[in-house]
């Protein structure tokens, strides 16, 4: 097999891009409900939905219990069929490995693992009265579960290479799902307590003794007392100063990372597809989205969310001790979307959002991820149980599919694009979404919700700096003002503004209409209107409805002689 033909990540000036069939690939993805991909029969009614929503990639799970129902006896019949069906529908697959862990639990482990707590011991959780209860979570501190999971995952990856290596239907694999301990800040089993009372592993001691300036702000804030103390060799976990729950989280994060590293490295040794794991986020504090209720997702303390998962607080630990994972990916439902995108570019790792909201609120935000943070792709969850005609992703993915070559070209450059969104106005008419400022070359841009005489709509899109004074605008419901940044410029205006479409075969841009005048509010802005602008009773239909959602704008400036 030609290793260069295997899907892989390639470094660019800005980030890393996913390379499929030798070309950069933007995942217009959707994740299925947890068990949908286990049934070829169920999926027969789903494939057309995904295509209707303009998706090119589906995230579907394969579980340990599915492929190894009896120890040592592997069955890939159902998996092989759904992969074949995906290939027949020209869809790529990101395969989700539900092995030892899924949503902080071990519910997808096979029966022969679940029924043998002596060989595969469980996590113990501490109740409020101090007693311990058995959790539905495999402990990290036995050895058999890790070995058995790694063996199963390696067998899966070898099988993928054998049956799909020449086709690259599967382009990435997720290792486990939202790992961590729920219900307590750490495992309280006898094995865990023994490990907690032992000296810190030498490799972690050396990691904590290094320069902290490159660690996340959250890591430095939560564990800052470790930086200030003398970390002598032989210290146990219990000797470490600081907030005990944060020490517990560090303890779990290190051991989860080591566990997943064994699993991931076993699989990668036989088929080196890009690998990642995803993260259930903590929702309180500055990273919570003020527009969504936090009651859905837990809280701010380890154990309210899965303690030990790769949240920003311990992201450096994961990156250091699970090097076979190409990146750590955030699931974003309730958090401040743009802020979390930025935080998960930490140490220049690529960004991928494997789970997010599937409604319009979520669809608007993908433009920020893709346009501003070089995102490999976004994936609304539960996409198979939504009516394609009602899915906002159909519209957004349709535009991205048409322009993906332009988006990918911009992503590969430094400071070549910016993505943004504007939410629905509050009931009292207030605009909670701030204007966006950007600078490209000689031009300062102000991007805001597009003007209408009635009630403004939502908006989203991206601006790509093509070259010099040429800008590509994608999306709806926004407007852009251009100002030359030279102090000698006494006037800035719009020289040309054209509606564009993309020829499907050649991918060449072609001019559809010349825009100026009303479409620029008499030269003030380049307006990308919404589908159905509200005229608010104004007697003249000044604002035109959106059509292609693509335009090229060329600003100009006048200078003092």
UniProtKB/TrEMBL annotation:
GO terms for biological process: carbohydrate metabolic process. Residues 47-209 form the Glycoside hydrolase family 42 N-terminal domain. GO terms for molecular function: beta-galactosidase activity. Residues 393-526 form the DUF5597 domain. GO terms for cellular component: beta-galactosidase complex. The keyword Acetylation does not apply. Keywords: Glycosidase, Hydrolase. This is Beta-galactosidase. It comes from Aureobasidium pullulans (Black yeast).
